[in-house]
């Protein structure tokens, strides 16, 4: 009989493989074992640092749970893994730009 902790680990591994396959490797021609290892390492980094997970409240697994993200004025997209995936990062708000105002010369 299998140990009780084997089933959940297999389920997590199978889910990760299915996600990697659907999100990335289905869209790419793998040319060999070295290429596959490189691709999977890059995808694992994206999965743990840049990909939002619904079960974690749209945070990545490596995000600090004690940090509350503040709303930002701008969101920037970064294309990763050969432009097949997108990561979105918040940028610090910029001060407003007023092109019609001129600095006063009376100081």
The helix content, as a percent range, equals: 25-40%
The largest sheet, given as strand count, sense and whether it forms a barrel, is: 2 strands, antiparallel
Adjacency order of strands in the biggest sheet: 1-2
Q: Regions with pLDDT < 50 over 5+ consecutive residues?
A: none
What sort of overall outline do the alpha carbons produce when their principal axes are compared? flat
Q: Provide the residue-averaged pLDDT.
A: 76
Determine the structural class based on helices, strands and strand pairing: alpha+beta
Structure description:
The protein is an alpha+beta fold and 107 residues long. The protein contains 2 helices and 2 strands, in the order ααββ. A two-stranded antiparallel sheet has the order 1-2. A hairpin with a 4-residue loop joins strand 1 and strand 2 (85-91). The protein is flat and about 55 Å long.
């Amino acid at each position: 009989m299998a140990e009780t902790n084997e089933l959940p680990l297999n389920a997590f591994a199978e889910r990760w493989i299915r996600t990697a396959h659907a999100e990335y490797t289905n869209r790419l021609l793998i040319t060999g074992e070295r290429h596959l290892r490189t691709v999977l390492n890059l995808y694992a980094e994206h999965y743990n640092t840049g990909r939002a997970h619904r079960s974690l409240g749209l945070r990545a697994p490596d995000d600090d749970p004690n940090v509350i993200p503040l709303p930002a004025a701008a969101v920037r997209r970064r294309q990763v893994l050969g432009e097949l995936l997108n990561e979105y990062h918040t940028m610090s708000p910029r001060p407003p730009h007023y092109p019609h105002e001129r600095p006063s010369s009376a100081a």
